[in-house]
Amino acid sequence: MRYVAVISYFGAAYVGWQRQLNGLSVQEVLEKALMKAFGQPVCATASGRTDAGVHAEAQVVHFDADTSIPTDKIPFAVNVHLPDDVSMLSCEVAPDNFNARFSAKRKTYCYKLYLCRHRRPILEGTHEQITVPLSLSAMLNGAKEIEGTHDFKCFEATGSVIKNTVRTVYEVGIKVAPLGEIGSVLGTGNDENAYRGDGDKIYDCTVEISVTGNGFLYNMVRIIAGTLVYCGMGKLTADDIKKAIDCGDRTLAGKTLPAKGLHLVRVIYQ
Hints:
- There is one protein chain.
- This protein is α+β, with helices and mostly antiparallel strands.
- The chain has helices at residues 26-38, 74-79, 121-124, 136-146, 220-233, 238-247, and strands at residues 2-9, 45-46, 55-64, 86-93, 106-115, 128-130, 134-135, 148-151, 166-178, 201-202, 205-213, 262-268.
- Strands 1, 2, 3, 4, 5, 6, 8, 9, 11 and 12 form a 10-stranded mixed β-sheet that branches.
- A hairpin with an 8-residue loop joins strand 2 and strand 3 (55-64).
């Protein structure tokens, strides 16, 4: 019988989703847990690869297994064999022709930042720190240039062997939320760089850049996030992004942000 499950993982300890010779992958850990739960070898296929250090809040996988375990109890049976940084959140019976990778219509990745002078240890594992204020309006203007069907070669890292670099980005969203106030112990602090939601400079806040598309190139979302951060810093403009896309020139876009801020948050099949 074919099953489809939602898997969540904190990717810091892994070389990515796919099995690799150079380290431990999420796929290897999950397949070992499935084998222990079902008493038989099981191959798990994911909606797509996530790179080393990238997290997944809702990775979708399918697998075939012959088991008497009730479907709603499978996550409990599997999770007892998984480490604390990987968890099966749900499981259901899928049609025989369902394929977690090839049946997917679109995916949403989210790149998470926090804007603050000083390191926040609680956020460090899942967010990238930016130490200067950003212009939210400039980032939003830049995001509009990325939406649509384009040749996204300028947002592809070196090392990819993919020949067709045309993709459709349905939406680029930016969500901002204030960090918890620290304030002055003696009441003498000031908030000149504090979060403001007026489209001007933002600071002391978290920023989530979500990108929904029909597919992504190597490091594409991390480069998009880095490009929008450069827009917020005033290093790039929306016109610069348009030029980078038109020219297909990687050097005209922003830097590739670290893997730790990237999260796979949703895979859509309908």
